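Two quick folds needed for the group meeting slides. Do the first one here.
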Amino acid sequence: MNLSKNFFYITFLLAAPLFIVSCDKDDDHHDNHDHTHVVAPATYEFERNGESSVSFSGQTCRLQMATDIYNAMNDQNAFTAAEFETMFSDGTGFDFAYDCGKNIGSKTSAGQGSAVAVRQQFIDMFTALQDVYANWDNIATVGTAGYITTSGNSTYQVDAKGLEIDQAFIKGLMGAFVVDQISNNYITASKLDGGCNDPSDAACLDGDNYTEMEHYWDEGYGYLYGYNNEHVGGTDNNANGPAEGKGVLVNKYLKKLNDGSHPGIANTIYDAFKLGRAAIVAGDYIIRDEQAAIIMENLDKIIAQKAIDYLSGAASTLADGGAREDTFHGLSEGYGFVLSLQYTSYFTNLEVTSMLDQMMEGDGFWDITVDELNTMVSQIQSVSGL
């Protein structure tokens, strides 16, 4: 045996025990980790000292603000662009006097480097809406805002390129607001590990009945389930089922997927939220992070599947010779879900921006082609595996 081979052989023998120990340690923390000591409750209800330790009232407030802005966008001349921006960015100026001190703007696209540019996209929608208001009673034509009437006699207000601004806004918030805050913020290990989790430490509770880590997880939960049919002032309803479809944001579309193409997805997400919260109480952060991964994966599916559904639906209508106006509503929803894709694990901001630009190039929805739509659908399907 030559010296170089002999040196390699001796080095390998010395390193092998370290390698084995390293692998065994990794297995202990993942594949062989004991899950049986953490039990999820039947519903998302947790108590400490006989009182609820769950709180997500801030999320309820923000979800209702988003709903109020969306509803107002459907009323001609409801607000000026500046007034809409104040509602969005400052959380004031609503017909209902919110006193929660929250807003939507600071929580929109907060988890990525393109945050300022994306927030501006939403603010620009309020400006674009003013042209729609000005042409509210006019029939929309190529290059001119107004209303379109479908073959089913539904009427929609669109901009000069056929886009419904309100749909782009609310569907865009699915990712930029809801998924971003859940998947890219509150249930990430970096966020959770930055919060204390010792209920015996008064400083950790800070006068509340929950630890910081518990509260972060609850806030993530609240962005999906926190909408309350009552206006702010209603209590957190933690006993809600996993797929009630409340509100106009992601919970609505979770129910649609659960009732359609992805049966069981609602229970998968809800169960993961429950078990993840129970793991935090038990101090088991391996189980916590496993449940967070399940939640993230399935929220991504909601966004991607709806983008696919709306774009492919429009492509099918056009391919079958349907009226172009029959596609505008679905394409507007699809536009918002495509915007949302950059907050999933599937696409970057640059990739999404390219797709959005393609949808709006030329005369927008007035001349988008079946091939263009099918290409985007194939791209999303290929990356997401859906």
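Then this one, please, same format:
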Amino acid sequence: MKPKVLFVDDEPNIIHSYSRGLRKDWELVTALSGEEALRAVEQHGPFPVIVADFNMPRMDGIAFLARTIALSPESVRMMLTGEGDFHIATKAVNEGNIFRFITKPCPLEQLNRLLHEAYRQYRLQQLEKEAHQQELVIAGEIQSTLLMEKVPAEVNGLDIAAVTVPSKDVDGDFIDFFRFNDNRFDLVVGDVMGKGLHAAMVGAGARNQLARVLWQLSLRDETRDLEPAKIMNSFRHVMESGLNQVQKFITMMYASFDMSQQLMTFVDAGHAPVLWYSAAEKVWREVKGNGGPVGLPFRRPFEQSCLTFAPGDIILFYSDGLWDGRNAAKESFGEAELMRCVSRLADCDARQFVESLLEDYRRFVVPGPFFDDLTMVTVKIPR
């Protein structure tokens, strides 16, 4: 199959001449104006290569090619002009994302050679895109199998379930779990600013550094002395310089469950609030700390807060991707919709809870990839 080229010029004789001379190598679609060419892009695109004359009435070549960036972003664009004006050339390159600027009259053989160069550029872009996409798929597989902590279904009697859904193939959200003994179990939910591979790499590094911090602290401190505030202050100390260098920050919720005292002690580092369901009162409450994200210049030490839980209680940790989802009317899922959804899930076990909430979220938002990475961890206290 011949590659498709869109050729735009307001002179019929030039259109006719190039159509005859180029049809051996190319499937040529022609237009006599920018308006007609835009319709062709919408109806017959995508075009690997688009060639437009500069000097056309109503819509010149620069304006037309600039419009095609949104309609056909992967096309390689070239401009023909009889005017050897440096300022026109500069404007064309900057505004129309031009690959080549060709001075008329252009011999047929030279134009054909330039079309082949443009098509090679298009194929190179496609191959790079495919390679990058494959790298993201592989990275996603590595993240899901090696870098994302497997969720324990039950630890110290707690019923636990989690879900993480990337907005791209990989995501910057992370979770981790640490069992110290029969009475203590810690979990962390983190959200790296941004999306995609860069955020995922920072998230993987953060998980590794947090585990390292816990190991180093455990060598010199008793378990009872490993308070969440001490852990998070040490973690921020080792992460701050690196995060500043890559211009990233991380919101986190670090929670420690003491089963003997039925107490959750937590540090909130600028993260989305925890939702807590009190089975005794049959009420959902929002629980929030006062710390700032790791990587931003907050010098005040982290402080920890406490929550006393009871049998039947549910504690939901989540990333702000749960708030960011929007429906067709551009309304966000938000706190009100979240409260409406969880209010009917109090009798579910942890797995049913996260699956039902994710299903409600999918029904609410516009179909397709999520706007932001989404993570949820549910902990249900056994009765």
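Slide caption for protein two: Residues 108-147 form the longest helix (40 residues).
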